[in-house]
Amino acid sequence: MSTRWWARVSERWAKVSKRPRAVELTALLLLFGATVGGCFVIGWVTSGSLALWSGILLSAFCCLALFWRNRHPLPVVGFITVLTMVEGALGFLLTPLVMGPLMVALYSLGLRADRAVTRNVSLLAAVCVVATGLFLDPYGHPVLLGVVNPTAWVLLPALLGSYVGVRRAYAADRARQAERTRAEEARHHVVQERMRIARELHDIVAHHLALANAQASTAAHLYHTHPDEAFEMLTTLSATTAEALRELKATVGVLRQDTETGDGLAPAPGLAQLSDLTAACAAAGLDVDVTVSGPPQPLSPGADLAAYRIVQEALTNVTKHASTRRAEVRLTYLPDTLSLTISNEVAPSRAFGAAPGSGADRGFGLIGMRERAQSAGGTLTAGPTPDPTPGRAPGPAAPRPRGFQVTCTLPLHPTT
Questions:
Q1: Residue 58, domain extent
Q2: Are 287 and 327 in contact (CB under 8 A)?
Q3: CA-CA 20 to 30 A from 205: which of 32, 115, 321, 345?
């Protein structure tokens, strides 16, 4: 029952609050009625010896002045304080009803002015009330009723208004901080999404273009000596470019969607498509040896995609930067992690990682692989393969050529 009643009251108040001028006018009329009622009570107590018309007129002026309390709080407080002193000098006992307009004005001042101004103005109003009770009261009311009680009622609304103002400022500051936090989080999510899209497009474009370049170069080399093999390589090149266009179209299509529905979209690649990846590399002239150790275990979708893209990018780098035509991929399933190792054979020319500071080191391949591993909760290291003869004594002989190796560790999250 009480819940329904409160719901009705809330609904009606929501309708009324849409008309603030009408609400304010109604409140001031009620305040005027209460103030006039206080004057009548005091006149009745004093056996009608007061001129009640003067109390009604002064109360009307005070309530009218309250219309400007929000825009000009200080002048309104001063004006109403003077009229309240006039009421006291006419013999009206300054009760809470008679001082209602002054209390409302001081409360509004506490809401909008700083604490120092509110304190000084409220103390000045209290001094005026005390002076009225001590020196201007023609009936000599008791000190408790004519001085102490009015002073307390003057200070109370000022303190309450100051407290409410501080709480509102605190709430507004918290709201601004929350808004800034939401804006920062939104910018962070946008940056993360842009990086994710950049990694995805880089992996798609770099892999297929590297394969297409290798196939085109091989076809040009074989054109005069083995035209049949060159024609077959060109056929494979057409399939590679078509696959690149298909993946680019699918990725851009996802970016252009305004919803998150996955209708008509191909699933994200994973280690299950590793055989297709090695076949594409073989068509470009790169033989990939895949070794799996340990019983295969399922990965989370994010880790599975990261593992596939890391292998894809590493093999793409072999195709672009290494002189060797062979690479090795080792997958080691441990109880809690998956270890990926992609390495190219030792060759007399440069490896796909190249030396630090070379042209190959200025790309985004290794950066993207590290970011993918970190996004899946793993780690990645890349560098030249370990020296097969670490104990070899230094001498004038030329150093043994070394390949390049990428090692990645990803956590396993089996699905149930």
A1: 13-182
A2: yes
A3: 345
CA–CA distance from 23 to each of 17, 26, 60, 269 (Å)?
A: 7, 5, 18, 64
> How do residues 52-100 score in pLDDT, each as one tens digit?
888 899 999 999 999 999 889 999 999 999 999 999 988 888 999 999 9
- Helix 100-112 and helix 73-89, axial crossing angle in degrees, nearest 10: 160
DSSP string, 47-68: TT-S-HHHHHHHHHHHHHHGGG
> Which one is predicted more confidently, 263 or 300?
300
Interval 302-331: pLDDT, tens: 888 888 889 988 888 887 776 677 889 999
> What are all long-range contacts of 104-107, with beta carbons under 8 Å and residues at least 24 apart?
104/31, 104/66, 104/69, 104/157, 105/65, 105/66, 105/69, 105/73, 105/76, 105/77, 105/80, 106/77, 106/154, 106/157, 106/158, 106/161, 107/157, 107/158, 107/160, 107/161
Provide the sign of the torsion angle of the four alpha carbons 189, 194, 199, 204, taken in this order. positive
List pLDDT tens digits, range 336-388: 889 999 988 654 444 344 433 333 444 567 887 888 888 888 899 988 876 65
Instruction: Determine contact, residues 341/329, Cβ cutoff 8 Å.
Output: yes
Instruction: State the Cα torsion 349-352-357-360 to the nearest 10°.
Output: 120
Q: Are 219 and 234 in contact (CB under 8 A)?
A: yes
pTM of the model: 0.50
> Both 276 and 172 in a single domain?
no
Residue 210 maps to a domain: no
